[in-house]
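Risk register update: the risk of archive-format incompatibility is retired. Evidence:
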Amino acid sequence: MQNSAERMVFTDKSGAFQIPHLLPGTYSIRISMPRFLSAMKQDVQLNAGGSAILTVNLQNALEVVRRAVSRDREDIAWTLRSSRSTQPVLRLTENQSREQTFDTQQQSPEYSGYFQVYSKSVETSAGAQDGVGSQFSVTMPLAPKSQFTLNGQYSESPTEPRGFGATYEFAPTDRHRSQIGVKVRQGALFADPLQASSLREVQVEYGEDVQWSDHIVFTYGAAIGRAEAASNRNYLRPKFGISWVPEARTTFTASATTQAPAAVDDPIRGKEYFDRTLYVPPALERYSHAELAVSRVVTENLELAAAIFRDRTDTQALFVSTGENRQGVVIFDTRNRPSQGFRLHMNRRFRNVETGIGYTSANGIGIKMASADPNELRKQMVARQFQVVSARFKADVDTTNTEITAIYRWTSGFSASRIDSYQQLFEYNDPTLSLTVAQNLPGWRMFPGTIQAILDARNLFEHSFGPNQTPVAQYPRLVKGGINIKF
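Archived output:
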């Protein structure tokens, strides 16, 4: 390996492993397995934010010694990809035996994904009304450097968004990665059913990552959409970013986008495009985000990051519930009230545990005083400075086959707007404590997947504002469970 000492890892009982904090560069990988001859892959190029997929054929050592006519081979697909931050990781994605002819050197596509069915919320608040629903995602490699993903979400409740999307990703060259996708979404319906058409949206998205040199990477793209069946609701939302890597452990990034905030993909929470918590019609959504960031890999398991940013949204929403069981959403204009500030973040990885802590200071929109009348809330909006402290804990418990992710966010006061919603260091932006648990259930050999019981708890402590007769909250509190099938 370049810029790195030799490292050795062992797979777990499912054949998966990780090497955290790999740096961009050229790698040599040796794979060994009892009763099979070792294999070596050299000159594996890992770019900043890039990925590489390798297929290795391990030959049965005993058959080689015996000079048999036929030889058993075992295909192992290795994926070299980027983590949520800038450092890449190495993961074994599939390990299976199959016969392969030397004439074609082709293999069948390896499908991956999940299908999930979840229950109604055990507890909801601030007007949230969850229903029974499901979501799915299926990824199919089409060629060594391309893949197709289909995903979607459905809920029986009209107050939950639903839709589907399809994305095609491919690599035209070794240092060039592209993707194109289409998404169709019915937004959450909270009021007049006759206005449902204003919540319908169709979006086409295109993006590219280009490594111009060993030190510079460009990211750019655009989302073209149509909200509602009217030409005046069309929109174009471009994005652009540039990353400079002066040396292997440091990355500087400058980016700007007019697209909506998007969370990392998660098999329990789903994808942000379908699972938004704000009830803002797509026709009213306008975004603007600019950021300057730097990250530094201090040691093998420790990374530091800092950024300054500026956000602007045209509209914000608050859930309101009155004493007469009346529920609604207050949508207010924030186009002339941008949010700007800075964030600091530290991430530490142990064997099966990853922890992080972050601090954000930014201005946002607060409320001057409690109001018993929802119509008066717009008049109570005032600009304030907010302090946010975030803590993250993520673990894979091997002894019980349990996956746990917990995010806690503390805010210095009640914020009527989202603070630092474009951050990508924590999976969830819900205020207070959010927790997800996935517990593997006993399966059987004939079933090609893993069955998990899942728990999704959001905003457990729920920051609300207002008198008892008029609770107001930016996010709902809910707890729901379900079954998740990963394959």
